[in-house]
């Protein structure tokens, strides 16, 4: 079947920008629980927390590997390191499923059993299926290939690269979750039939850590819209497309500020506020 994909636009994204009001406090704006990073990839924890803060969040609780807490705090002292109530979770960036210890497995399982919205990235992608709340997975092509392979759905990296939309849909249907398949054109699909593309305005995003930044933006959006997600789990798909849109625009703004040149992952996170500000003013 030929699918119809719709390019997600600024107007679509603007509808999901949550501007705080007089009655808001940090809890009402949303608290994001973050379990990311590892000894091998500590920076992923820093990047995701940074991006969540830049995307507008009430509070971030970082409860990933304890040794990384100091690094996260050095960049974002706002971060809280104790467990507590959260409205959404960001799990897996910078983690290796093969090196997961018992404690970490328990914490990830706890988050997935909470019924709250979850963004599953990188080293937590294998846990898709045990989720209980509105969930979106954020693989790149290689990660999707591995995920499908583990479920005995053979697909080569070349096949996925040639037809990313088809494979995003297949994964959404097989895994029963929204899928955000990263690339120069990001494909967002879910089992109810939502099909969105977000075309990056440029290609400087192809650099280490920008996926971790996307996870932080999406986590913040999910936490900020926990009420909407409780009413309509399918809203996670629109939030994922909105996060990808903001991410691409932030890369463009960051590059423009550098004479149209290259950007780093932190540059992209830094450029998120003006993008959100402009969308909020639409
Ligand atoms: N500073 C940090 O801490 C960073 C941590 N990162 C984390 O590093 C871990 C490993 O990520 P990787 O994606 O590098 O490793 P993977 O183990 O997923 O990828 C390894 C191989 O997959 C292929 N591959 C990588 N990206 C691809 C893409 N977009 N499309 C198709 N094939 C691709 C490449 O051939 C590569 O050799 C993840 O947990 C990620 O979150 C990365 O985000 C980089 C920055
Ligand atoms: N050629 C490209 N043009 C535009 N955006 C890209 C390109 N390649 C990758 N991206 C985007 O950059 C990000 C890379 O994420 P990911 O592959 O997870 O890298 P990392 O693991 O280093 O963070 C994704 O948001 C993806 O959509």
TrEMBL record:
SUPFAM superfamilies: Ribokinase-like (SSF53613)
CDD domains documented for this protein: YXKO-related
A Pfam cross-reference name: Carb_kinase
Name of the molecule in the record: ADP-dependent (S)-NAD(P)H-hydrate dehydratase
Subunit details: Homotetramer.
Free-text function comment from the UniProt entry: Catalyzes the dehydration of the S-form of NAD(P)HX at the expense of ADP, which is converted to AMP. Together with NAD(P)HX epimerase, which catalyzes the epimerization of the S- and R-forms, the enzyme allows the repair of both epimers of NAD(P)HX, a damaged form of NAD(P)H that is a result of enzymatic or heat-dependent hydration.
Segments forming domain YjeF C-terminal: 9-279
Organism: Agromyces archimandritae
PANTHER family: ATP-DEPENDENT (S)-NAD(P)H-HYDRATE DEHYDRATASE, ATP-DEPENDENT (S)-NAD(P)H-HYDRATE DEHYDRATASE FAMILY MEMBER
Database matches in InterPro entries: CARKD, Ribokinase-like
Keywords: ATP-binding, Lyase, NAD, NADP, Nucleotide-binding
Catalytic activity: (6S)-NADHX + ADP = AMP + phosphate + NADH + H(+); (6S)-NADPHX + ADP = AMP + phosphate + NADPH + H(+)
One GO term of the biological process aspect: nicotinamide nucleotide metabolic process
Residues where (6S)-NADPHX binds: 44, 94, 140, 212
């Amino acid at each position: 079947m030929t699918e119809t994909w719709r390019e997600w636009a600024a107007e679509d994204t603007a509808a999901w920008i949550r501007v705080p009001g007089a009655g808001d406090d940090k809890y009402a704006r949303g608290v994001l629980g973050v379990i990311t990073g590892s000894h091998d990839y500590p920076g992923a924890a820093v990047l995701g927390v940074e991006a969540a803060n830049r995307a507008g969040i009430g509070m971030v609780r970082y409860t990933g590997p304890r040794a990384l807490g100091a690094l996260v705090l050095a960049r974002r002292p706002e971060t809280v390191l104790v467990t507590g109530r959260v409205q959404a979770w960001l799990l897996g960036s910078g983690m290796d499923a093969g090196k997961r210890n018992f404690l970490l497995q328990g914490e990830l399982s706890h988050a997935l059993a909470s019924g709250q919205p979850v963004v599953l990235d990188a080293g937590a992608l294998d846990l898709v299926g045990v989720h209980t709340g509105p969930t979106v997975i954020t693989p790149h092509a290689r990660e999707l290939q591995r995920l499908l392979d583990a479920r005995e759905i053979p697909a080569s990296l070349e096949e996925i690269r040639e037809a990313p939309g088809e494979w995003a849909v297949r994964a959404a249907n097989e895994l029963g979750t929204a899928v955000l398949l990263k690339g120069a054109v990001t494909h967002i699909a879910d089992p109810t039939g939502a099909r969105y593309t977000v075309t990056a305005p440029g290609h400087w995003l192809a650099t280490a850590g920008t996926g971790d930044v996307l996870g932080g933006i999406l986590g913040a959006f999910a936490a900020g819209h926990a009420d909407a997600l409780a009413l309509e789990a399918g809203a996670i798909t629109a939030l994922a497309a909105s996060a990808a849109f903001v991410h691409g625009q932030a890369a463009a703004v960051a590059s423009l500020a550098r004479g149209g040149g290259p950007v780093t992952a932190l540059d992209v996170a830094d450029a998120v506020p003006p993008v959100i500000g402009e969308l909020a003013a639409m």
